[in-house]
Design brief:
Essential cell division protein. May link together the upstream cell division proteins, which are predominantly cytoplasmic, with the downstream cell division proteins, which are predominantly periplasmic. This protein is mostly helical and 112 residues long. Helices cover 78% and strands 0% of the residues.
Length: 112
């Protein structure tokens, strides 16, 4: 064995250390990519959760408005029912115009 062969690096040992370094670099890059994806997914989840909460609040508001509209519809429906029952069951009617008397109150300007 001469001096040059003893000093020269062994190709097999050098390639093994290079392979280890490359493997570590790839693993570190994969870990960073995985961490980035986790952060992105958490952000997306929170955004979607906020949007769902907004939609649920809007649904509650619309349900409340729907209930108010149903009450209003029943109120208007009962007015027409009262008029119909008054005519059919009690035989009530609107008086003719000849029997109608209009009473007007004196205005405040006439009193002065």
């Amino acid at each position: 064995m001469n001096l040059e062969e003893a000093i020269a690096p062994q190709p097999s040992r050098l390639s093994i250390t290079h392979k280890k370094i490359i493997a570590y670099v790839v693993l570190v890059l994969l870990i960073f990519a995985s961490a980035t994806m986790v952060v992105f997914e958490v952000f997306e989840y929170r955004h979607d959760y906020r949007q769902m909460t907004t939609y649920l609040r809007e649904e509650d508001d619309l349900n409340a408005e729907w209930g108010r509209l149903l009450i209003e519809q029943q109120t208007f429906g009962s007015t027409s029912q009262i008029g119909t029952r008054a005519v059919t069951q009690l035989r009530m009617f609107s008086p003719p115009t000849a029997d109608t008397v209009v009473i007007s109150l004196p205005s405040l300007e006439q009193k002065k």
